[in-house]
Amino acid sequence: MSCDDVEMLSPPRGTAYLAGRRGRRTGLSVTATLVTVPVLWLDATLRVVEAQPTSPAARRPTQASPAAKPSDVMLVAMTPNGLPAGNYPLVGAGVPGQGVLEAARRQAPLTFETLASEDRLVALGDCWDGLVRAMPRPSPFLLHCWVVEWWRHYGEGSSLAVEVAFRGNELVGALPLITFPHRGLRIGTFVGARQSALADALIAEGEGDELVEALVDRVIASEHDYVDLFGLSAEGRLASLKGPRNLQLFQRNEAPVLDLSDGWEAAYRRRTNSRKRAHYKRCRRLLAEHGRVEVVVARTLEQHEAALEEAFRLHELRWRGRPDGSGFGTETGRRFTRSVMPGLVEIDASRVVMIKIDGRAVAFSWNLLLEGHVFLHRLAFDPAYGRGSPGIVNALNSLEFAAGEGAVKAEFLGGAERFKRELSDGLEPLHLGLGLPGSAKGRAAVVARSTWLRARRRGKGSALAQKAYYGTASARRRVMRRRDVLRPSGVQRVGD
């Protein structure tokens, strides 16, 4: 892929960002204030100029089995008062240790509930994100602010069906689903629809697989025909279920990843050779020919609000006349993004990185941060500057900035475009999961869709099938409705 039409990679080596106060709850070690970096592209260095069968357990509270006495708790007999000092063990106050409190928590009964109203979902705001942060591969698209705002903007015509589990008063499990009508069927899917990468069952630390099974059993017993779950990792909790709870998995995205644990410089040199680094330096020099180059990082809400308007403008320029299923540039997509941003900024989970030339934004990258992971979520550039690959250069800026804040892993998500493959250490694919039928027609639909997806997968290995598919692409685009991954149907609403 050439400098002219790719969009995503690193800031020039040597970029410096001013350290700010420590961020809150991102899992990263350092964050940064808004930085405007005038850049001199005279050489290769970026120089900074300061400025199934229904489980009975799933429908009724259950008593957890008594926990064993923790091994680190020692019971000591109380010493009588008035004895000579120094001849007897010291006796501390009788305050329960952490192990005792944990045992008491585990003995609390499990209760379940199906959240069918926005008010009930909103009420869990103080405890929901703890479950998201406990995920082995956390998904920013399951954060409380994201799922609530998504529901408010895209939930019309759907029904909330969020299964939750409590142990005493503590939220210990959740399966964030909705149901929506499609061709005479009621289909269950994640809150967030196709924009739910890495979604999974949310389970508190210390809880076992039996809780996942109980939540899934409640889904099977609910009023739906089958589930269509996008974004599953093959190693996730739902993907690992067996028997009647088993989901049929179909790989949908390659989802490249990059290890940043040794810092940006090490990752950059590991994944690029001298020829590729020289290519990126040339791209930066081409950008510098247009004027004074700056790298701007938005962190506060005010900075994000200004950066978003530039992002919408650049997205429109980049995708004008091209098929775009992201939903980012639609009227509803803009309202949703503006609404979700305050919540993301409050928990320090968002950055917008921009390249400006003579004060005008020419590329942006909207990145999400969570538990040491950086997700390159949306990016675009002005095609007028395409020779200098501002999209790729700005993606590299984003990765260096995130690594400087303490990110240890970059998630590119989406497909394995050339620039992603060159930068990534490997693929951790995302899957579509079909199954959990709740009716005879739901079982038939799962069989039909699975058969079609397997045939499609086999066809990708056929040169004739590929030629027919790509040869009819323009005709198919003319007759098919526009895609929108943010909607449950996957189809853009007319007039949006």
Features:
496 residues; alpha+beta; Aminopeptidase; nine-stranded mixed beta sheet; 33% helix; 21% strand; globular; disordered N terminus
Helix content: 25-40%
How many helical stretches? Answer: 14
Would you identify the CATH H-level superfamily of the domain at 35-50 and 257-427?
A: Gcn5-related N-acetyltransferase (GNAT)
**Strand tally:** 19
Point out poorly predicted stretches. 1-94
Using only C-alpha atoms, the radius of gyration works out to 26 Å
Name of the top-level CATH class of the domain at 35-50 and 257-427: Alpha Beta
N/C terminus separation: 32 Å
- CATH topology-level fold name of the domain at 35-50 and 257-427: Aminopeptidase
Question: In the CATH classification, which architecture of the domain at 35-50 and 257-427 applies?
Answer: 3-Layer(aba) Sandwich
Strand content: 15-25%
Counting helices, strands and paired strands, the structural category is: alpha+beta
**Average predicted confidence as pLDDT:** 81
Tell me the strand order in the biggest sheet.
Answer: 2-1-13-14-15-16-17-12-18
The major beta sheet can be summarized as: 9 strands, mixed
Globular, elongated, flat, extended or rod-shaped: what is the shape? globular
